[in-house]
Amino acid sequence: MMHGTVNIIYTNNKYLQKLHSAQRLINIKIAKAYRTISFEASCVIAGVPPIGLVIDGKVQVYRRKYGLGSSDIVCDMPLPVHEWPHPALQATIAETNEATTYPIEIYTDGSKDASTGGAGVVIYRNKQMIMQCRCKLCSYCSHNHAQQIAILKALEQLQEMEAPIGGRAAIYTDSRVTINSLKNHDIHGFLIEK
User: Fold this and answer.
1) Which of 2, 6, 59, 180 has its CA 20 to 30 Å from the CA of residue 127?
2) Does domain 82-193 have CATH number 3.10.20.30?
């Protein structure tokens, strides 16, 4: 219901003009500007995004969140509550210790430029490289998604390998954002949960 209401307000030009007029008056008060400036100029001077863009963004987020409309872009959406793991089953992330020897060491990296992205994994067993893999990502993946996909690919490879002696493996990444997301059990994004 809310989706239709938001969409009607935005697409109906008469209502959008009323919103622009109200926002322009508020922007003039914020910026203490002359009453003769245009709507666009008032937004720039006040440092406030135009209401139409804000509404459009909210509509897009709402559509993606609830699967409305057609979109071939798969984004990192939060998992539904019924798919969250039980708190007792959540993995514990610990920093590596230089004094500890890890039989398996995995190095991951994800990168992104203007047109493409990629993720890479290199696995060492007892200081000898045994595997490397890389994957090309779509242009709409962010740098954080690339880092998360690299770690996910490393974990998939680790599951296929025989268990190391002592059951320990170290995964190294240079993404502090990804590490913090993995440690924060309140984040339930698809890649983080995987």
Assistant:
1) 180
2) no
CB contact at 8 A, 135 and 104: no
Residues 6 or more apart whose Cβ sits within 8 Å of residue 137:
110, 112, 116, 117, 118, 119, 145, 146, 149
Query: Do 143 and 160 meet the contact criterion of CB atoms below 8 Å apart?
Result: no
94-125 pLDDT tens trace: 778 788 888 888 888 888 776 777 888 888 88
Residue ranges, comma separated, of all CATH 3.30.420.10 domains in the chain are: 82-193
Q: Is the pTM of this model over 0.70?
A: no
